[in-house]
Amino acid sequence: MKKNSKVSAPAAAMMSQQELFWDSLYGDDLKLARATGCSCAADLEREKQKKQERQAKADAAQRQNLRENEWKRQKEKEEEKKQREKNREENKWKKQFEIAKKQAFSEGVLEAHDYGDGVYWVQCEDKRWLEVQGEYYCPLCNKQLNQSSLELHINSDAHKKKVAWSLGPSGPGAHSAPSMPAAPRAAVINTAVVKRDAPAAMAEWQTMGPDGLVRCIPCNKVVDDNHISSGDHIRRLESWLAHEQLKKTGYAAPTLEYLAYVPSVAGDDTSERWLKCLLCGKFVQDETSHSGTKENPQGSVQHKKNLTNYVGTAWYQDNVIKERLKWHPAPTVRCKPVPKPAASPAPWAAAPAPASYCGGRAPAAPAANAQPAWMRDDPPAATQRVYDPWQDEEDTKTTQVPYPSSSETRLPSADAAAEGEGEEFEC
């Protein structure tokens, strides 16, 4: 008992001190001291500090939760608003699409159908089934469309122009084309297309296409004001008209004999013909590079060399003249050939020989149209070689002027006298 009494005495003293401390407290401090077992004011202050820190954290967390909840509510409101706008736009688009679809069907657009194989099919005007990539097909424009592109297509200028050409007012001079069949299992819609007759006076460069639209032959496009005024159309039309005129009148032979209009595609005589220099083997790109004659060489450096070295030769006859005659068989103007030297009259025909010239050479009388030696090509008196550039070398003959074989006085014949100037003779 003594041992137990020794242990319980300090505990009783301690309890009395804690109770005395609690008795000095009241309200929240008392509750906090009892909850935490504080026995002095220092312990109570520490617990109050901890409680304030915990409360501050709790308040901060609560404020964060409130902000997050408010942000979520705002996002939900925005999403709901967007969804309402989306639904409104979808309803509006559906109404517009229904209107556009009715307009498209009235303008000849066909609706394609999928029969379970994942492929869209549409029946054309000639009862022919065509596989397409979209839900709709415009036969006027040959366009494959879907729900997104249908309205844009029927409102495009190109489609409107084709519809304006195809949907003309019926009258005494107009007729209706067979109506276009509706797509399989599609709503019964009037898709009859009234096509215009070809204009009474259609230009030669215009043609009526199978779709009833007037097309430009050089450009292969539908004819309208914009196309006619375009620069590409004007250039192509000029080239096309010139080509058609050449088909009717033929290609006129060029003045220079080494030029000819030959096919632009080798081996295809039906292709367009271009001007070519047969002497150089090149197509003519301008008016100066391939010009001139042998007497007056002009053009490029290589062309001048060819004029000087090859005109009048056997190669020129075989490769230039014959090739030109292949494309221009009619007689044409030829390059000026090398002129033959003018024959001088015989001495006896020009003037009587004086007696004092016996044993000597009689002077020849000057020709009527005498030229300086550097201006004419007179052959030697003994042998005269007449060169013709249009004859082969083997056909060129040499004319020998006869000489007297004895001391007799022998005059040359009339032919020889026409070629020779003067000969020696003895009295």
TrEMBL record:
<feature type="compositionally biased region" description="Polar residues">
    <location>
        <begin position="398"/>
        <end position="410"/>
    </location>
</feature>
<feature type="compositionally biased region" description="Basic and acidic residues">
    <location>
        <begin position="65"/>
        <end position="92"/>
    </location>
</feature>
<feature type="domain" description="U1-type">
    <location>
        <begin position="133"/>
        <end position="166"/>
    </location>
</feature>
<feature type="region of interest" description="Disordered">
    <location>
        <begin position="44"/>
        <end position="92"/>
    </location>
</feature>
<dbReference type="InterPro" id="IPR003604">
    <property type="entry name" value="Matrin/U1-like-C_Znf_C2H2"/>
</dbReference>
<protein>
    <submittedName>
        <fullName>WW domain-containing protein</fullName>
    </submittedName>
</protein>
<feature type="region of interest" description="Disordered">
    <location>
        <begin position="361"/>
        <end position="427"/>
    </location>
</feature>
<feature type="compositionally biased region" description="Low complexity">
    <location>
        <begin position="362"/>
        <end position="373"/>
    </location>
</feature>
<feature type="compositionally biased region" description="Basic and acidic residues">
    <location>
        <begin position="44"/>
        <end position="57"/>
    </location>
</feature>
<dbReference type="InterPro" id="IPR036236">
    <property type="entry name" value="Znf_C2H2_sf"/>
</dbReference>
<dbReference type="GO" id="GO:0003676">
    <property type="term" value="F:nucleic acid binding"/>
</dbReference>
<feature type="compositionally biased region" description="Acidic residues">
    <location>
        <begin position="418"/>
        <end position="427"/>
    </location>
</feature>
<dbReference type="GO" id="GO:0008270">
    <property type="term" value="F:zinc ion binding"/>
</dbReference>
